[in-house]
Prior knowledge:
Largest sheet: none
Number of domains: 1
Distance between the termini: 30 Å
Strand content: under 5%
Shape: globular
Amino acid sequence: MNNAGIYSGNIDDVLRTNIYGVKLMCDAFIPLIDPNVGRIVNVSSGVAPGYVKRLSNKETINFFVKTDVTWEQIQDYLKQ
């Protein structure tokens, strides 16, 4: 189980830490997990939905709620 992240600070730092942190943990552990019974569980505090709810830019909101977003799209967003 992974529940590591930050809440305060610059929004860019928060997003990078909370997104890349999960990605790096998954990349490190997926090769070690038995594909038949293993799994990775990421736990969230629920702060992210509250953040998205307060956004005013509809395009940004739509990006954050997409269920089929690719890793490349996430990286492109973070480079903005």
